[in-house]
């Protein structure tokens, strides 16, 4: 017997994985950049 | 190209280019997702699952473009000793790995309703999985070299050798029997209808802009870490 697949479940899962992964990477990269640039300014000021 | 080798000049350009790429990338990617989810029509054979392709194709493209960036930057470092080339290669590694993982995940999610299976060990899928392992190896190697103070030429050679996998991924669907369909878009011709083609084009553009923004942010972070470390070392020597 064939199982009934709701195609929208797969569509939503694929979009959710992509949105979460992309936003996490953008946010992490932004925070890492800001932290590193703050440390450089602090090193200049010492 | 060496005109952009000066870190101060690079930073001057990167400071205004980063938010431009980031905001335009977020806007176009969000627009593509809204189009893919709510506006694009269902396809005759694939049904609603065709919507996954608006995100799957750009992520796969960026997985391959990321390693191409690593390979070209590695070549520039090895041949011309471009001072920012190693930073560009390291900056492209993490977003490239993430988009490769997303390409595998979205492809697998698409494959279950379309092919009836999450995974098959065919040429395209296997060579793309190998790409993810290459990224993980490159990230580990570049991190170890940076921590231990080794030569940056080692990850550069790894980046160049790993580029052999890119044509294998591209031609795998032509060389071997595969569940994966052959290319739908060629040079100047396409078997896709315009509403899908334009959506895919917008997706590739939006995600590529985001990729560019992330590479710039990671390059700026690496450069700032190097500059802070050099300054602290110089002050320690002076004291």
Automatic annotation (TrEMBL), chain B:
Keyword Cell inner membrane: yes
Main location: membrane
Membrane topology: Multi-pass membrane protein
PANTHER family to which the protein is assigned, alphabetical: CYTOCHROME B_B6 PROTEIN-RELATED, HEME EXPORTER PROTEIN C
Protein name: Heme exporter protein C
Assigned protein family: Belongs to the CcmC/CycZ/HelC family.
Gene Ontology biological-process annotations: cytochrome complex assembly
Cited function: Required for the export of heme to the periplasm for the biogenesis of c-type cytochromes.
Cellular compartments annotated: Cell inner membrane; Membrane
Gene Ontology MF, one: heme transmembrane transporter activity
Residue ranges of domain Cytochrome c assembly protein in the record: 5-180
NCBIfam families per UniProt: ccmC (TIGR01191)
GO cellular component, one term: plasma membrane
Record-annotated membrane-spanning stretches: 20-40, 52-72, 84-105, 125-145, 157-176, 196-217
Keyword terms, alphabetized: Cell inner membrane, Cell membrane, Cytochrome c-type biogenesis, Membrane, Transmembrane, Transmembrane helix, Transport
InterPro entries: Cyt_c_assembly (IPR002541), Cyt_c_biogenesis_CcmC (IPR003557), Cyt_c_biogenesis_CcsA/CcmC (IPR045062)
Pfam families, alphabetized: Cytochrom_C_asm (PF01578)
Organism of this sequence: Croceibacterium xixiisoli
């Amino acid at each position: 017997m064939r199982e009934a697949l709701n195609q929208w479940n797969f569509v939503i899962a694929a979009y959710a994985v992509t949105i979460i992964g992309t936003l996490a990477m953008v946010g992490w990269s932004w925070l890492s950049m800001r932290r590193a640039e703050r440390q450089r300014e602090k090193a200049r000021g010492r | 190209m060496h005109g952009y080798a000066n870190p101060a000049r690079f930073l001057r350009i990167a400071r205004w280019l980063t938010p431009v790429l980031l905001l335009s990338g977020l806007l176009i990617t969000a627009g593509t997702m809204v189009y893919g989810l709510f506006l694009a029509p269902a396809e005759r054979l694939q049904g609603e699952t065709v919507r996954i392709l608006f995100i799957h194709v750009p992520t796969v493209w960026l997985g391959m473009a990321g390693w191409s960036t690593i390979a070209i930057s590695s070549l520039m470092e090895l041949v011309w000793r471009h001072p920012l080339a190693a930073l560009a290669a390291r900056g492209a590694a993490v977003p490239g790995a993430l988009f490769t993982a997303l390409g595998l995940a979205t492809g697998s999610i698409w494959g279950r309703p379309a092919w009836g299976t999450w995974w098959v060990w065919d040429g395209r899928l296997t060579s793309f999985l190998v790409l993810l392992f290459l990224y993980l190896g490159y990230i580990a190697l570049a991190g170890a070299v940076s921590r231990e103070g080794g030569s940056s030429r080692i990850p550069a050679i790894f980046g160049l050798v790993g580029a052999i996998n890119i044509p294998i991924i591209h031609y795998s669907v032509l060389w071997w029997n595969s569940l994966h369909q052959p290319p739908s878009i060629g040079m100047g011709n396409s078997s896709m209808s315009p509403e899908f083609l334009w959506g895919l084009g917008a997706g590739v553009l939006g995600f590529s802009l985001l990729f560019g923004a992330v590479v710039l942010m990671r390059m700026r972070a690496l450069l700032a870490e190097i500059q802070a470390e050099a300054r602290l070392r110089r002050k320690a020597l002076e004291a």
